[in-house]
Amino acid sequence: MADELVTPALAAVREAGPSITRHFLTALLLSLFALSALMHAAGLHIDPWRAGNLPYYAAGAVLLSLRFGLPRTAWRHAVPVARFCEYAGLFTLISLMGATASYPVAALTHGYADVALQRVDEALGFNWLGWYRTVAAHPVLQLLGTAAYRSIYVTPALLLWAKARAGQHAEAYRFIAGFWLAAVITLAVFSLMPAVGPFSHLWHGAIPYMPESELWQSGLIPALRAHSVHIVDLAKLRGIVSAPSFHTAAAVLYIVAAWRMPSMRWPIVALNVAMLLSTPVEGTHYLIDMLLGAVVAVVSLALIGFYERMQFAMARRDRAGAPTSVAAAG
Questions:
Q1: CA 197 – CA 215 distance, rounded (Å)
Q2: Cα separation of 87 and 17, whole Å?
Q3: What is the DSSP letter of 45?
Q4: Is the dihedral of CA 284, 289, 293, 296 positive or negative?
Q5: In the 8-state DSSP scheme, what is residue 76?
Q6: Element containing residue 140 per DSSP (H, E)
Q7: Are 280 and 128 in contact (CB under 8 A)?
Q8: Which stretch of DSSP H or E encloses residue 24?
Q9: Are 214 and 262 spatial neighbours (Cβ–Cβ below 8 Å)?
Q10: With a cut of 50, which residues of the chain have pLDDT below it?
């Protein structure tokens, strides 16, 4: 093979990554196989030739080109931009996989948990209808709530760019792995308590304000169960998970990640508190959905922490056993 010009940037991105990188990519590959099995079981598939998929193909091609092409240049920002493209691509893939997986998961469920979820809200003293009426009566709250709810993809872009610039490769993968794990746990719990959400369950009159999440659950989940939907259109993915609230899980993960970054801490905390406040109406979630979402985030962080402690313990044992092994071999 011909000798390759190895730039400093190319050498940097080729350095052996931490074990969390390898293990996470393996887990992500297994997730793809699991998603394929779920789609087959539910009688669903993705048409790769739909025009709506073209933006995803184009974005993927651009990210791959920058990730593997930039490190071969002498541009001084090549490494952080290449790393950011890597992180953004993985984060987008996880988001697409999670939203897609909610369709076959919903198709394989039975019944609805809305009555039980609403009873818990009543016990907690949460009045969803009062919250909705307040937002419906104030256009400013509607505008702010919609913007805050959509910021779920703004915060990770800021966090991942900051980690790429700082060279925090392991931290970036820790954040992405936590997001992936939260999505997996959310889908597992959703399969046990499918719901149409408080908007469909509680509101039965004329609609003065249509939230961001609209009324997809009440129509889409029955259609999926009846197998009258066969194609999952990536360009028209709809949020159909009520409990747990993934927006809440994401907000907790974002705040925890930003807490270690003084320069970004308070803006991200403020943005995600706003997202949490918008979630009952814009996401049509019960309060218990949000509490469960927070639990999902905490469990995800705990599992990532347990993994890291196990890796540290194994590495310490390996270092402690290395001299003994060499002496025994001699």
A1: 8
A2: 13
A3: B
A4: negative
A5: T
A6: helix 139-150
A7: yes
A8: helix 19-42
A9: no
A10: 1-3, 13-14, 16, 325-330
Residue type, 37: A
Distance CA 22, CA 108 (A): 32
CB contact at 8 A, 221 and 196:
yes
Residue 182 near residue 302, CB atoms below 8 Å: no
pLDDT at res. 17: 52
Structure-block tokens of residue 309: 């402690």
**What angle, rounded to 10 degrees, do the helices at 169-190 and 246-259 form?**
160
**Separation of alpha carbons 252 and 246, rounded Å:** 10
End-to-end CA distance of the chain: 38
What is the separation of C-alpha 59 from the centre of its chain, rounded to a whole number of angstroms? 18
DSSP 156-187: HHHHHHHHHHHT-HHHHHHHHHHHHHHHHHHH
The reply to whether omega before 80 is within 30° of 0 (cis) is no
Residue holding tokens 């009846």?
A: 226
- How much is the pTM? 0.90
Q: Could you tell me the two tokens for 201?
A: 């369950």
Q: Provide the pLDDT for residue 20.
A: 78
Phi and psi of 50, rounded to 5°? -65, 140
What's the CA gap between 229 and 39, in Å, rounded?
12
Q: pLDDT of 206-234, one tens digit each?
A: 999 999 998 889 999 999 999 999 999 99
